[in-house]
Design brief:
This protein has 402 residues and is an alpha/beta fold. The chain has 13 helices and 21 strands. Helix 1 (19-31) packs parallel to helix 2 (50-57) and helix 9 crosses helix 13 (382-399).
């Protein structure tokens, strides 16, 4: 899902037992297409050797600030200048102090002082060290300078105690990197509301009317919008997916709850991408007690749920994007929905097609615009589909002067 092709990431590694996560992080960054240059403190090499990072990145790792074999006149300056972002993970209390005070005592702090790229710092230390006023003051200094501080998390520490100080998970750090890199993107300053997942309309305390939506498409749109600098609000029905980093998430269950949240958030938004599979019908009345099995069967009376897109239709200047998940007459049904809902753009997909239905990591859609635009996208990861949708959203926002 993460696409960091040709982005230059300098990964600073310091002396913490959490360094094992940094090896995985370096590998994940490389798999995502990033060019990863690892710089290490001398203390870090006592936990993991430089060759370990070279093995996962395919590039030499540096730990000696007086290295004369690198071929660079000033290695730290060269790395600092070409970096799109500097990530320090794990960042020990000592390193946090060095960065805050502007010290340049080894390759990590030296490179940090030289770079003008964005910096992400991921603390990892015992909770007593993290909570110390000195450490907290240093972190506040870094935040005031625009450094993005990620974590730490609460959990079991190397000391055996449980507390706040664990290095954030690799997926969280990857999300933070994307968030930081996207700050100046083409959606910076825009608020994008995204809906995701299905809704659950209760029949009784243990049963509901719902659908097979996994929420993956909506999550991909939210992450892709975040990666382009947008302020993203994700209104999500029940899913098994973790909340994406840097995205404000509102969890709902029923269609009415989703309607209320979406309408409220769209009041000051520039665009709405309605990727949720909202139930069209709900039981006329939810039974308070579990319905017992009956030999004669059960008949449910269903009524319509709110039409969310129709209720945000009066928002002036709002770019509205919908999805048409169909099993037949794909384009005809999508065009009808495009007109009926007053949408600017609709993404139509056949949910019965292989690898593009509910729960898959890929999708094949046709984009249709109110202005007659049509584009047939091949089968691709949902994140890439989201990126193509947002390309159109950017154009639509420009056309509306927003």
């Amino acid at each position: 899902m993460y696409n960091l092709t040709d982005r230059n990431v300098v990964l600073g590694i310091t002396g913490s037992i959490a360094i094992y996560k940094a090896v995985d992080l370096a590998s994940k960054l490389t798999q995502a297409g990033a060019i990863v240059d690892v710089v290490m403190t001398p203390e870090a090499t006592r936990f993991v050797s430089a060759i370990t990072f070279q093995s996962v990145t395919g590039r030499r790792a540096y730990s000696d600030m007086f290295d004369v074999e690198s071929g660079a006149a000033e290695l730290h300056v060269e790395l600092a200048r070409r970096a799109d972002i500097l990530v320090v993970a794990p960042a020990t209390a000592t390193t946090v102090a060095r960065l805050a005070l502007g010290l340049a005592e080894e390759m990590v702090s030296l490179t940090a002082l030289a770079t003008r790229a964005g910096i992400v710092v991921c603390p990892a230390m015992d909770s007593q060290m993290y909570e110390h006023p000195a450490t907290q003051a240093h972190l506040e200094t870094l935040r005031a300078r625009g450094v993005h501080v990620v974590g730490p998390e609460e959990g079991r520490l190397a000391s055996g105690w449980v507390g706040l100080g664990r290095l954030s998970g690799v997926d969280t750090i990857m999300g933070a990197i994307r968030y930081a890199l996207g700050r100046g993107g083409d959606l910076a300053g825009k608020k994008i509301v995204v809906s995701a997942g299905g809704t659950q309309e209760p029949i009784d305390p243990v049963r509901y009317v719902g659908n097979y939506s996994s929420g993956k498409m909506g999550l991909a749109v939210a992450e892709a919008a975040r990666d382009r600098g947008a302020e993203v609000v994700l209104v999500s029905g029940p899913t098994a997916l973790a909340d994406p980093y840097g995205v404000s998430v509102t969890r709902v269950r029923r269609a009415t709850e989703m309607r209320d949240a979406v309408v409220a958030q769209c009041a000051d938004a520039q665009a709405l991408v309605m990727a949720a599979a909202v139930a069209d019908y709900q039981p006329a009345e939810a039974i308070g007690q579990k319905i017992k099995r009956r030999s004669e069967g059960l008949t449910l009376s269903l009524v319509r749920t709110p039409d969310i897109l129709a209720e945000v239709g009066s928002q002036p200047g709002l770019v509205k994007v919908g999805f048409a998940a169909e099993s037949e007459e794909l384009l005809a049904n999508a065009r009808q929905k495009l007109a009926a809902k007053g949408l600017d753009l609709i993404a139509a997909n056949d949910v019965t097609a292989e690898e593009s239905g509910f729960g898959s990591d890929t999708n094949r859609v046709t984009l249709l615009g109110r202005d007659g635009y049509q584009e047939d996208l091949p089968l691709m990861p949902k994140y890439d589909v989201a990126a193509r949708i947002l390309d159109r959203v950017v154009r639509l926002l420009e056309a509306k002067g927003r």
